[in-house]
Design a protein that fits this description.
heterodimer; A: Alpha-Beta Plaits; Alpha-Beta Plaits; 2 domains; two-stranded antiparallel sheet; B: N-terminal domain of TfIIb; 41 helices; membrane (chain B); iron-sulfur (chain B); 4Fe-4S (chain B)
Chain lengths: 457, 1237
C-alpha cells in the first residue's frame, strides 16, 4: 500500500442550472489574456451536444486516453513513444482552432467614434486572432440549450449507439448541463505523453500542472488528454490548463469555480488512495469494471491500517482528518451517488458527477400510475426523460444499472423526505430497497440539500 | 471552508524531489521551480471591495470586487450573507455569469469616458450662445428654428458625437430645462429611470430633481409589463412576494412561465434543493426551457393559453375539494380571507321570456338599505363601501369588519380587521333558507372567450342559487365562481359540462386540452396533487409565475386564474405557499425613505408621476396606428357602454375622470394657468374647472400632436429606453426622435379614429427637443441621444440595494474612483440642479405650478366613485368636482432658484406632515435628529439646519433612517398607528428591533437583514423567511381592497363590460385578424408567420450585458432568433443563417438558431437585443436592423386605466396600462447571406 492524497471534486449535475458562472469567473481570473482567448479551463456543455472542442468524446477520432494492448497492458491510445515521436511536428490527433472556435472581438470603438453618417453605428465582429471581419460560426458553447440541435446534438458521440432509442423531437426533448474542468486524473495520459517531462502531478495533492519553464510546446498532452482539457497558448506556444486554483487551494480557499458556483453543486475534498494499485485498476479488462476498480483504489480514511500507512508516508494528521470528513469520500464511497466521467478512458479521473434526475417523458396515461392517489407525486425512474443509456454512456461505461442505482437512491431520498416533512411517517421498506438507512439518507439529504459551505469544501 | 485545506501551503514543503511511479504512467513531483509564480502573481491582488450591481435585475447580489495596481481585475460573489438557520440552505453564493463579467465594462472600448454632444447640435448651440450670450436664449433659437431643429433631430442615431465637457453639457441641459419650463411648462420636462431598489440614491437624485422642478416622472413597472395588474385587482397591493428562501418551505411548486435557472439564477438552488426535501416541482412552459429539467412534470401549453389550463385546474379543485368533498381548512380560509361569501346583485337585462340575468355589483349596505332590507354588523358612514354577506348564524345580511369604509371613516377605527366575530358567512346559497325563503336556481349569462367573432367572445348560461332580498336578486361570489368554472351542482339550471371529458363546455380539463395542447389527464393529475398538497400541508403549495405568463395583453386574466388556485387552497399568507411573481419587481425594502427622498416629498407634494405606457402611446403617436378599439374587447355579456370607442378615447376619459394620470397636463403651461387664475382672482382649481367646462382649456392628451403638448426634454439614466424597453421602437424613432425608422404600419382608417382626440393630418416627427442619456455604455439610447454623459459604474459609487428575492439591504461601494471624466448620477444631477437654479435667477424665479393629480390609492380617494360606476362630467353625467369626479388640482409653489439647495437637504415636511406609506403616517422625529448628527446640517440658506444630503452616502443614510424596515423605531411607530385602525395587536411585530437601526456604514460591511415593518405584509420576526400577506392572515389585517379581502370578483363598470368580473380564460389577441398579412409581399418569398416571443435571456439582463464579450462568446455572438425545426424547414432556414423578421411595426435582422426544444409556430428573440452589436442592414428597409422591440407596439387595455374606486385606484407603478408585448406575430424568412453593415 502506498497512501497518497488527492484533492478531488464532485459536481452534482442534478443541481446544475447551466448558468456558466463558473466559466466566467474562471476565465476572468485565469484566461482573459492574449494567447488564451479561446481557452476555458472551466466550461459547461449542454447534453446532448458535441461539447468543446467539438466531438472531443469521440476517441476513435482523437485517440485520447488509454487503451489495453493485446497483452492487456495499458498504453496511450495516441500510440507508443515511436508513433508520437513520428508525429511530433504534425500531430494528426490535434484539434484545430475550428474545433474549438475562432474567438471574436467587436468593433466597440465605432459606437463612440463613428463620424456623422447615414446609419446607426454598430460594433461588428472581428476575429480576435486575425483582426479581420468575420461571421461568427462556432463558439465554446455554440449548442447551448440545444441550439442547432438537428445538426449538432445529433452528432453527440454518446448518441451514436442509441440512435434507435433517442429521437430529437420536441415531445421527447431532454437536456442537462455538464460543467467540466481538468480531471486531475490518478492516471493522467497528458503527463505520460509529455516528451519534455513538463507535466506533473503534485505529490501532496495530486493537482496536475504544466511546468511553464519546461514546456516545449510539443502538444502531445493535448491529444493524449481524452477530455481535451490541456490547451495551447498560441502566443507562448506552451500548454496551459486548469490548475485547480492551486494558489487558492494552498491558502485554504476553494477553487474559483466551486466558490462562485451559484447552483452550490461543487464539492471539494481530499481522498486517500493507494498509488500502487492505480495501474492495475486502470488495466481491468472490462470497461464496466473500471468504476469499481477505481473505487477500490480509494482508501478508507477511517481504517486504522490506512491511517497507519498514511502516517508512515508522512501525511499529516489534519490531512487524514480532512480525508475522513471529505464530502468526496461520502458521495463516492459512502453513498455511491457520484460517478466518474467516461471511466473507459482509463485515466482514473478525479472530478466525479452525481447524475441528473429529469422530468417524466410521457403523459400520465403511459405511466401506468394511479391517478386516484394524489399523494403519490413522484414518478418511477424508468420513465424519466433522460435515457438511462445516455447517462450510462457518460458515467459508467455503458452500465445502465449503475446509473439507475444512483437515481433510485436520489429518488428514495426525495420520497423519504417528503413523507417525513408532510406526515412525519417513513417507509423503511423503501429505503431498504436502495440499501440506505433513514439516518444515512438524511445525512445524504443534508449534504446535497442543506449543503452549507463548510460541508461542501 | 475546511480549515484542514489551509494546511496545504505549509505541507507542500514536506515533499521534496521528483519521483516517477513504477509504470511511468504518472510522474509525481513537487513543483520543480518557481515556474508557478505566474499563476500566484495573477491571483495576487491589493484589495477586495464589496459592492453590488445597480442593474435592473432582481439579483441584488453581493460581489467582492478585486483591485490590483489601482485597476479592477474581476469580481467574485460575496459569500457572507446572514444565515438562514441550521436546517435551510444559505443565500451564498449569489450571482450569475452576467454579473460575474460586469467588470469588463469598466475599461471597455465602448465605455462612455467623456461627455458627448452631437456635433451638429453643438455647433448650432455654440454659434447662438456666442452671439446671444445667454444659454436659454441660445437654446430657444436652436429649437424654435424649424430648419435647425430638423437638422439635428434627423442626425440622431447616425454617429457624429463630439467630446464636450461637463460644464458645457450641463449648461445645454439646464438651458433646455429652463426654456421648456418657461415656455411650455415644467411637465414637458420628463425623466425615465427604472426600479429604485437596485440603486436608490442614483434613482432618487434624478427623480428628486425632476420632482422639484415639476417635471414628469415616468413609471417603469407597468411599462415593462412586469406589473401584474391582477395584484392590485385582487389584493389592492402593487406586488408582494416571498423571498426565494421561502421556496424551501414549500412542498409543491409549479414554475409557471418562469424560467427560474435563467431569470432567478442566484436563487435557483433553493428550488433544486427543495426537491431533496420532497418538494414536487412542475414546470409549465411552451418550450423545453432550462427550468423544465428540474421539474418532475412538464406541461407545455400553447403560448398564451395558460389561463385555460389554470381555469381547468380550478375546475378540478372546485369539483373535488369544494363540491364533492369539503376541506375545513379551505372553507374557513375562503370565508375569512376572500370575497367568496359576499353577495352580488343579479341584474335583469330585457323582459319576459327573453330576460337574462347578469352579475352586477357587490350588494353593499347602501344598496341593501335602498332595496328595503335591514343590514346588521359593521355599519356606519359611507355605506356604499360596506359590502355584505349572509350571516347564517344570525340569518341576516351583515357587513363584516374590515371593509373599505372601515378603513377611512371614523366608524372604522379599531374595526378595520378580518375578525368574523360571531358571524358565519355562507359561501354558497345552495339549499339555504333565509328569512323563510329558500334560494332558487337562476340562470345567469357569463362570458366565455374561446368562441365568438370578436375578442369579446361569446356567452354561456349557467345557474346559480339566488335569493331575493328586498327588491334585488343576489347570489354569492363563490356561487358565481362555481358557475364560471363550470362546476355543476344538483338543482341548478343552465348548461353544464357532462364531465371532465366534455370538450365543449368551458372550464373542463378536456376543454382546456383542446386549447392548450396539455393532455386532460395531466391537467387533472397536477390539479389534484397541487390541491391535495395544500390540504395536507395547510397552504404550502406555491406557483412561481413569471414573464412568460405576465407579459400578455390579458395578463391580468391569466394571473387571476392562477391566484384563484392559490386562494381557494388557502396558500396565500402561508410560508412556503402562494404566488411568487418575479418579473422586474424589486422590492425597495426601505420604502418610506426611498419614496419620500426620491420624490422630494420632504419639500413639496405631490409629484408628477405618470404611467409610461399611456405617455408613450400618445407621445410616439402609436395611437394613430391602432388596429382595433375598445368595442372589439367588450363581452356580449356586458351592457355595452364601451362601444364605438378607440383606446385613445378611453385614455382621455380616464384622464378626465381622475382615474389615471395624464402629463403633460393641459394644452397650456401650468405656470401660466396659475398666473391667469391669480390675475382673475380665483383659486387655481376653480379657474381650471371653469376653463375645462367651457372648453377654453383642454387636457393635453386630447391633442397630443399639437406642438404645445409635446414632451420636450427627456433625461434617461440607469436605463436603455431606445435600445430595449421602448415597445414600438420604430414609432419612437419616427415620431418622438424624428430619426430614420423602419416603420411599415398604416394609420388607422378614418372610421376607427378617436372621437375625443384631435386628428392632425400629418403626424409630427421629432417632438423631442433634447434627449440626454446618462450611462457608461454606448447603447441605442446613447447612440440616439443628443447629449451622452459618462456615468460611474456600480464599482465606482456608493448606493444601497435591496430586492424581493432576499431580505437584506446592502451597499454599492467604490472600488475605484470614477475614471476618465465619469461622474456618479448623484453628482451629475446636483450639477444640473445648480445650473438650473443659476439660470432660473434670470428666467424663472418663483412660480406657481398646478398639478392635475389623479385619485390615489391608499387614500380616501378610493371612495370617490362608488360601485365603479362611470359618470363623466364632460357628458353632463355628474358635476365636475376636483378630487371626486375628476383629478385633484394641486397648487405647488416652486422657487426655481433654490433647486440646488433643496436637493442637498432633508426638507421640512417630514418633520411636519411626516411620512405616509400605504396609508400609515409616521412623524419620524428621532430619524431626523439622527440624520442631523450623522450627515450634518446645511449651514445657511433655504435649508438651514436641515440634515444634509450633499453626498450619495447621505441620501442612503436618510433612506435607511426614515424606513421601518431599517429603523426599528419607525417600524414600531407605524405598527402602533396601524394597530389603532385595525384594532388587533400588531406593534409586537416590531418590538424585537424597536431600538435597532441599519446604518449605511453597516451595509458597506455586508448584507444586513431588514426588520418587519408596516410597509410590507410579511414578517421576518424571529428570523422567519418573508412570505407576503402573513400579517393579513395571522393578524387579520385587511387587504387594501373594497371588501378588505382577496377578491375573486371585481365589479367596476368597465370590468363588467370586458367580461372580467371573475377569473376567466382569454386567449391571446388575434393579431392576424386585426392586422392582416404583415409579411414581405414579394413573389417567391418563402416565409412563415409565427408567434413572436421575447423571453428573458440567459446571456443578458434586460438592457445590460448583451454587449459584453464574455456573454457574446458564450452565446452566439450577436442577435439570434430561435426557430423550431418545422418552421425552419418551411422557410428554408438552416442553423446560423441570417434571417429577417418583419411585421407592420418594423424589421429585425438576426441569425437563426434552429432547435427541437422550440414548439412549432413560435419563435423567440431573447430580450434584450440592441442594435449596437453585429446588426447588419435589413433587406426589408435598407436600414440598420431593429431591436427586439422593433416588432412590437403598445397595446392598451382599457381596464388598466381604471381609477377612483377601491383597489382600482391609481398609484405610481401600482396601476396603469402595461407595455405588454407577447401577443405579436412576425413573419420570418431566410435573407441574402451576404450582409452589409
Amino acid at each position: 500500500m502506498r497512501v497518497m492524497s488527492q484533492v478531488a471534486m464532485v459536481m452534482n449535475l442534478d443541481k446544475c442550472i447551466g448558468c456558466h458562472t463558473c466559466s466566467v469567473t474562471c476565465k476572468q481570473t485565469w484566461t482573459n489574456r492574449d494567447g488564451v482567448e479561446y481557452v476555458w479551463f472551466n466550461n459547461v456543455e449542454t447534453k446532448p451536444g458535441t461539447g468543446y472542442p467539438r466531438g472531443y468524446e469521440d476517441q476513435d477520432r482523437w485517440r485520447g486516453g488509454w487503451e489495453l494492448d493485446r497483452k492487456g497492458r495499458l498504453r496511450l491510445r495516441s500510440g507508443g513513444r515511436l508513433r508520437r515521436l513520428a508525429h511530433i511536428f504534425s500531430n494528426p490527433d490535434m484539434p484545430g482552432l475550428d474545433d474549438y472556435y475562432e474567438p471574436a472581438t467587436y468593433d466597440f470603438d465605432q459606437l463612440v467614434s463613428a463620424p456623422a453618417g447615414q446609419h446607426v453605428p454598430v460594433a461588428r465582429p472581428k476575429s480576435a486572432i486575425t483582426g479581420k471581419d468575420m461571421k461568427i460560426t462556432w463558439g465554446s458553447n455554440w449548442d447551448d440549450d440545444l441550439a442547432g440541435s438537428p445538426e449538432i446534438a445529433s452528432k453527440d458521440p454518446n448518441l451514436a449507439s442509441m440512435v434507435d432509442k433517442v429521437q430529437l423531437s420536441f415531445e421527447q426533448t431532454f437536456m442537462f448541463h455538464l460543467p467540466r474542468i481538468c480531471e486531475h486524473c490518478l492516471n493522467p495520459a497528458c503527463v505520460s505523453a509529455c516528451p519534455s517531462s513538463a507535466m506533473y502531478k503534485r505529490v501532496e495533492d495530486g493537482i496536475v500542472l504544466v511546468d511553464q519553464d519546461a514546456c516545449r510546446g510539443w502538444r502531445m498532452c493535448v491529444s493524449a488528454c481524452p477530455y481535451k482539457k490541456v490547451y495551447i497558448n498560441h502566443q507562448t506556444g506552451k500548454a496551459e490548463k486548469c490548475t485547480f486554483c492551486f494558489p487558492r487551494i494552498e491558502v485554504g480557499q476553494p477553487t474559483v469555480c466551486a466558490e462562485t458556483c451559484v447552483g452550490r453543486l461543487r464539492y471539494i475534498g481530499l481522498v486517500l488512495y493507494d498509488a500502487d494499485a492505480v495501474e492495475a485498476a486502470a488495466s481491468v479488462e472490462d470497461p464496466k469494471d473500471l468504476l469499481d476498480a477505481q473505487r477500490d483504489v480509494f482508501l478508507d480514511p477511517t481504517d486504522p491500517e490506512v491511517i497507519a500507512a498514511a502516517r508512515a508516508e508522512g501525511i499529516a494528521e489534519d490531512w487524514i482528518k480532512a480525508a475522513q470528513d471529505s464530502p468526496i469520500w461520502k458521495l463516492i464511497q459512502k453513498f455511491k451517488v457520484a460517478l466518474p466521467l467516461h471511466p473507459e478512458y482509463r485515466t482514473m479521473p478525479m472530478v466525479w458527477y452525481v447524475p441528473p434526475l429529469s422530468p417524466v417523458l410521457d403523459v400520465t396515461t403511459e405511466l401506468g400510475k394511479d391517478d386516484g392517489d394524489a399523494d403519490d407525486v413522484f414518478h418511477t425512474i424508468a420513465s424519466l426523460r433522460i435515457p438511462l443509456e445516455y447517462l450510462a454512456s457518460l458515467f459508467s461505461a455503458g452500465d445502465v444499472d449503475v446509473v439507475a442505482g444512483v437515481l433510485m437512491r436520489l429518488a428514495a431520498m426525495r420520497t423519504h423526505m417528503r413523507q417525513r416533512t408532510l406526515d412525519g411517517e417513513v417507509d423503511t421498506a423503501l429505503l431498504e430497497r436502495v440499501g440506505l438507512t433513514a439516518e444515512e439518507v438524511e445525512e445524504l439529504y443534508r449534504l446535497l440539500a442543506i449543503a452549507k459551505m463548510e460541508d461542501r469544501y | 471552508m475546511s480549515p484542514l485545506l489551509k494546511k496545504l501551503l505549509t505541507t507542500r514543503s514536506h515533499f521534496p524531489g521528483t519521483e516517477v511511479l513504477d509504470s511511468a504512467h504518472a510522474m509525481i513531483e513537487t513543483d520543480p521551480s518557481e515556474w508557478d509564480s505566474f499563476y500566484r502573481d495573477r491571483w495576487a491582488h491589493d484589495k477586495v471591495v464589496r459592492s453590488t450591481h445597480g442593474v435592473n435585475c432582481t439579483g441584488s447580489c453581493a460581489w467582492d470586487v478585486y483591485v490590483k495596481d489601482g485597476l479592477i481585475t474581476w469580481e467574485h460573489q460575496g459569500t457572507d450573507y446572514p444565515t438562514t438557520g441550521p436546517d435551510s440552505p444559505e443565500y451564498e453564493p449569489r450571482g450569475c455569469p452576467r454579473g460575474a463579467s460586469f467588470s469588463w465594462y469598466t475599461y471597455s472600448p465602448s465605455r462612455v469616458r467623456y461627455p458627448y454632444v452631437r456635433g451638429v447640435l453643438l455647433e448650432m448651440y455654440l454659434d447662438a450662445r456666442c452671439r446671444l450670450g445667454d444659454p436659454v436664449a441660445a437654446w430657444a433659437e436652436v429649437v424654435e428654428s424649424p430648419l435647425k431643429a430638423t437638422l439635428y433631430k434627423r442626425a440622431r442615431g447616425k454617429g457624429g458625437l463630439v467630446r464636450a465637457d461637463w460644464e458645457l453639457a450641463t449648461e445645454i441641459m439646464a438651458a433646455a430645462h429652463v426654456y421648456t419650463i418657461k415656455t411650455y411648462g415644467p411637465d414637458r420636462c420628463v425623466g425615465f429611470t427604472p426600479i429604485p431598489a437596485m440603486s436608490m440614491a442614483s434613482f432618487g437624485v434624478g427623480t428628486r430633481f425632476l420632482s422639484m422642478i415639476g417635471g414628469t416622472l415616468l413609471s417603469f413597472y407597468d411599462w415593462y409589463a412586469d406589473l401584474p395588474p391582477a395584484s392590485p385587482q385582487v389584493w389592492g397591493d402593487q406586488t408582494d412576494v416571498p423571498e426565494s428562501g421561502d421556496w424551501w418551505n414549500s412542498s409543491y411548486i409549479i414554475m409557471w412561465g418562469s424560467n427560474v435557472p435563467v431569470t432567478r439564477t442566484p436563487d435557483a438552488h433553493f428550488l433544486t434543493e427543495a426537491r431533496y426535501k420532497g418538494t414536487k416541482v412542475v414546470a409549465v412552459s411552451p418550450d423545453y426551457a432550462d427550468s423544465v429539467k428540474f421539474a418532475d412534470d412538464w406541461m407545455a401549453p400553447a403560448p398564451g393559453t395558460d389561463g385555460a389550463l389554470a381555469q381547468a385546474m380550478g375546475h378540478v379543485l372546485l369539483t373535488e375539494f369544494y363540491r364533492d368533498r369539503q376541506v375545513p381548512y379551505f372553507e374557513a380560509y375562503s370565508r375569512t380571507f376572500t370575497d367568496a361569501p359576499f353577495l352580488v346583485t343579479l341584474e335583469q337585462h330585457g323582459d319576459g321570456p327573453e330576460a337574462t340575468f347578469h352579475p352586477s355589483k357587490f350588494l353593499t349596505s347602501a344598496a341593501a338599505t335602498a332595496a328595503g332590507v335591514p343590514v346588521a354588523g359593521a355599519t356606519g358612514a359611507r355605506p356604499e363601501f360596506r359590502p355584505v354577506f349572509l350571516d347564517t348564524a344570525a340569518d341576516a345580511l351583515t357587513v363584516p369588519n374590515g371593509t373599505l369604509a372601515d378603513r377611512w371613516t371614523d366608524d372604522g377605527v379599531g374595526r378595520w380587521n378580518l375578525d368574523l366575530e360571531e358571524n358565519d358567512p355562507a359561501l354558497s346559497l345552495l339549499g339555504l333558507t333565509h328569512q323563510g325563503q329558500t334560494a332558487q336556481g337562476v340562470e345567469v349569462t357569463l362570458p366565455r372567450f374561446d368562441v365568438g367573432v370578436t375578442e369579446g367572445g361569446g356567452t354561456i348560461v349557467r345557474g346559480v342559487p339566488a335569493l331575493r332580498v328586498g327588491t334585488v336578486l343576489v347570489t354569492t361570489v363563490f356561487d358565481l365562481l362555481m358557475a364560471q368554472y363550470g362546476v355543476g351542482r344538483d338543482g341548478l339550471p343552465g348548461t353544464w359540462p357532462t364531465g371532465y371529458d366534455d370538450v365543449e363546455s368551458p372550464g373542463t380539463p378536456a376543454w382546456q386540452a383542446d386549447l392548450t395542447g396539455v393532455p386532460a389527464e395531466q391537467c387533472v393529475r397536477i390539479a389534484r396533487e397541487f390541491t391535495r398538497n395544500a390540504e395536507v400541508s395547510e397552504g404550502r403549495s406555491m406557483i412561481i409565475m413569471g414573464a412568460g405568463t405576465n407579459h400578455w395583453f390579458h395578463s391580468d386574466t391569466i394571473y387571476r386564474t392562477f391566484i384563484a388556485l392559490l386562494t381557494l387552497t388557502g396558500c396565500q399568507g402561508v410560508n412556503g405557499g402562494g404566488w411568487a411573481h418575479y418579473v422586474g419587481q424589486e422590492k425597495a425594502r426601505p420604502l418610506t425613505g426611498q419614496q419620500h427622498m426620491s420624490f422630494a416629498l420632504d419639500w413639496q407634494r405631490p409629484t408628477r408621476h405618470m404611467t409610461s405606457t399611456s405617455f408613450w402611446y400618445a407621445a410616439t403617436d402609436q395611437w394613430r396606428y391602432e388596429g382595433f378599439g375598445a368595442d372589439e374587447l367588450v363581452s356580449p355579456a356586458g351592457p355595452g357602454r364601451l362601444t364605438q370607442r378607440s383606446m385613445m378615447d378611453c385614455l382621455t376619459q380616464a384622464a378626465r375622470l381622475g382615474w389615471s394620470p395624464s402629463h403633460p397636463g393641459f394644452d397650456k403651461n401650468p405656470l401660466d394657468l396659475c398666473d391667469e387664475a391669480a390675475e382673475a382672482g380665483v383659486p387655481v382649481a376653480e379657474h381650471i374647472v371653469s376653463e375645462l367646462k367651457n372648453g377654453t382649456l383642454k387636457f393635453a392628451v386630447e391633442d397630443p400632436d399639437d406642438p404645445q403638448n409635446f414632451p420636450r426634454v427627456l433625461t434617461v439614466w440607469r436605463a436603455n429606453l431606445i435600445g430595449n424597453s421602448a415597445k414600438g421602437n420604430e414609432y419612437f424613432l419616427k415620431h418622438l426622435l424624428g430619426a430614420d425608422s423602419s416603420l411599415r404600419a398604416n394609420e388607422t382608417p378614418p372610421d376607427r379614429r378617436p372621437r375625443d382626440v384631435v386628428w392632425r393630418e400629418h403626424a409630427p416627427e421629432g417632438k423631442l427637443d433634447l434627449l440626454t442619456n446618462i450611462d457608461f455604455r454606448m447603447t441605442s439610447t446613447s447612440l440616439f441621444a443628443d447629449i451622452v454623459l459618462p456615468a460611474a459604474t456600480w464599482y465606482e459609487k456608493q448606493d444601497i440595494s435591496t430586492t424581493d428575492m432576499h431580505p437584506f439591504v446592502h451597499a454599492l461601494d467604490a472600488a475605484i474612483a470614477p475614471p476618465w471624466q465619469a461622474r456618479t448620477d448623484y453628482d451629475a444631477f446636483l450639477g444640473l440642479a445648480d445650473k438650473v437654479s443659476e439660470l432660473a435667477a434670470v428666467h424663472l424665479g418663483t412660480r406657481t405650478d398646478v398639478i392635475a393629480a389623479p385619485l390615489t390609492h391608499d387614500t380616501p380617494d378610493e371612495m370617490a366613485q362608488p360601485g365603479g360606476v362611470v359618470r363623466d362630467w364632460s357628458k353632463g353625467e355628474c358635476e365636475a368636482v376636483p378630487g371626486v369626479t375628476m383629478p385633484r388640482f394641486v397648487v405647488v409653489e416652486r422657487d426655481y432658484t433654490q433647486i440646488g439647495e433643496k436637493m442637498r437637504a432633508v426638507g421640512p415636511l417630514v418633520s411636519t406632515l411626516g411620512t405616509t406609506t400605504k396609508g400609515v403616517t409616521v412623524v419620524p422625529e428621532s430619524s431626523v435628529a439622527f440624520l442631523a448628527q450623522a450627515n450634518g446640517v446645511r449651514p445657511d440658506g433655504v435649508a438651514k439646519g436641515r440634515p444634509s444630503l450633499e453626498t450619495a452616502a447621505h441620501m442612503c443614510e436618510a433612506i435607511l433612517a426614515l424606513s421601518g424596515t431599517t429603523h426599528g423605531g419607525v417600524s414600531l411607530a407605524g405598527f402602533t398607528a396601524l394597530e389603532k385602525r385595525v384594532g388587533k395587536p400588531l406593534a409586537d411585530l416590531a418590538e424585537e428591533n424597536h431600538e435597532r437601526q441599519v446604518t449605511f456604514a453597516q451595509t458597506l460591511t455586508g448584507p444586513q437583514p431588514v426588520f418587519t415593518s408596516y410597509e410590507w405584509s410579511g414578517s421576518e420576526k424571529g428570523g422567519r423567511r418573508y412570505s407576503p400577506f402573513v400579517i393579513n392572515v395571522e393578524r387579520h389585517k385587511p387587504w387594501h381592497t373594497l371588501t378588505g379581502r382577496q377578491h375573486f370578483f371585481v365589479d367596476h363598470d368597465w370590468m363588467t363590460e370586458l367580461g372580467e368580473q371573475l377569473p376567466v380564460y382569454r386567449p391571446p389577441l388575434d393579431m392576424a385578424r386585426h392586422f392582416g398579412h404583415q409579411g414581405f409581399s414579394e413573389p417567391g418569398s418563402t416565409e412563415v408567420t409565427v408567434r413572436y416571443l421575447t423571453p428573458h435571456s440567459k446571456w443578458s439582463i434586460h438592457s445590460q450585458f448583451q454587449d459584453n464579450p464574455y456573454m457574446l462568446a458564450l452565446s452566439r455572438g450577436g442577435p439570434t432568433i430561435w426557430v423550431s425545426e418545422a418552421d425552419a424547414a418551411t422557410a428554408g432556414i438552416a442553423d446560423n443563417d441570417w434571417i429577417e423578421a418583419v411585421n407592420r411595426n418594423g424589421v429585425v435582422v438576426a441569425r437563426a438558431v434552429v432547435s427541437h426544444r422550440m414548439p412549432t409556430g413560435t419563435v423567440f428573440m431573447y430580450h434584450s437585443k440592441d442594435r449596437n452589436i453585429d446588426v447588419p442592414k435589413a433587406e426589408a428597409s435598407g436600414k440598420r436592423g431593429g431591436i427586439h422591440n422593433a416588432l412590437t407596439m403598445i397595446m392598451m387595455k382599457p381596464t388598466h386605466l381604471l381609477g377612483g374606486y377601491g383597489q382600482l385606484t391609481y398609484a405610481f407603478n401600482y396601476y396603469g396600462p402595461t407595455g405588454n408585448q407577447r401577443d405579436e406575430l412576425t413573419v420570418i424568412r431566410r435573407r441574402n447571406q451576404e450582409v452589409e453593415y
